[in-house]
Amino acid sequence: MDGLIHSYFIDENGKGSPTDLDQFSKDILDRGFKWVHLDYSNPISRDWILNKSGLDEVMAEALLAEATRPRCLVNKKGILLILRGISPNEDDEPQDMVSLRLWLEPDKIISVRKYKLGVMEDISKTIEMGRGPVDTCDFIYSMLDFLIEPISEAVLDIDEKLDNFENQIITTQNFDFRMALSEIRKRIIELRRYLGPQKEALFRLGMESAFWGKEADRARIREMTDRLTRYVEDLDSMGKRATIIHEELAGQLTEQINNRVYIFSIIAAIFIPLSFLTGLLGINVDGIPGSKNDQAFWIVCFLLIVICLGQIIFLKVKKWF
What residue intervals traverse the membrane (predicted)? Predict the structure, then answer.
């Protein structure tokens, strides 16, 4: 296997013709554009990117780097765009974002990934149906649309869960969701970690007027940037909400524990004097009062009851419980 996932010559109507790496490297198109999508972990793909793709060494190495964060780099030939998308794998969490790297020229797009990302499969299906992007600008817009939609769903899911946590605290005082809340806070942090730089990358991409032929194209990219900015701001707000919920939860748990400790303290305050008296009267020495009286036991019990009631009345008057 050469690591080739998709490769097309795409005409101005959005219809694609499959091709291979050799044809992709050699052919120059009069109309439309060409797109190749590779698995960069494959040795053949890596060799093609480094030696046959026409990229300079810096940009080629950036496409193949193991650890990347979203960014946008520009040189005279084109634009390097590195993004993150939510993994389509059901076993992965939404915060496990997959890296997608693209080299953009007016008539050529090279995209690479290591792990499967559904956005490129969606674009490939539209191309095969003859309804694909008509130029590179349209390709980027379509890709961003497919890329941002799962992010929107993940943000909405987090928002709904936070609403549920808030309702549980207010209505049921159920504290069993502490671990789930910690997982939500982790998801927010991980998503924010990548979406913040991704927003800046898209903002710079939209500012590259030399690449976008029409103002309408720049406006479409700005629209996507605004959408992503809104989700980043939502995540910031949700992070604060999660912190407030956590603090409220911790406060209610602390109050609950304090109330229980207070009850035990009241009980101890009542029974300590009684324990002292019974302990004093229970010492095994001569001279204990009432030791010769048959009614002494009942007299002592009556006195203990009177003392206990007196303590309860005293505590009630002092409003200690």
Answer: 261-283, 295-315
**Which run of H or E residues covers position 71?**
strand 71-74
Helix (H) or strand (E) holding 113: strand 108-113
For the beta carbon of residue 281, count every other beta carbon within 10 angstroms.
15
Whose tokens are 């956590």? That residue is 246
pLDDT tens for the 321 residues of the chain, in order:
568 899 999 988 888 888 888 888 776 667 788 999 999 988 998 999 998 888 888 888 988 888 788 999 888 888 899 999 887 765 555 556 888 999 998 888 999 998 888 888 889 999 988 888 988 888 998 899 989 998 999 999 999 999 888 888 777 666 677 888 888 888 899 899 889 999 999 888 888 755 666 777 788 888 889 999 999 999 999 999 998 888 888 888 888 888 888 888 888 888 888 788 777 777 766 667 766 777 777 878 888 888 888 888 887 887 776
Candidate CATH numbers 3.40.50.300, 3.30.1330.60, 3.30.460.20, 3.40.309.10; the one for domain 4-251: 3.30.460.20
Q: Can you tell me the distance from the alpha carbon of 16 to that of 250, in angstroms, rounded to the nearest whole number?
A: 58
In sequence order, the 6+-apart residues with CB closer than 8 A to the CB of 154 are: 86, 94, 95, 187, 191
Q: How far apart are CA 49 and CA 37, in angstroms?
A: 11
The CATH-assigned architecture of domain 262-317 is Up-down Bundle (1.20)
Domain parsing of the chain, residue ranges: 4-251, 262-317
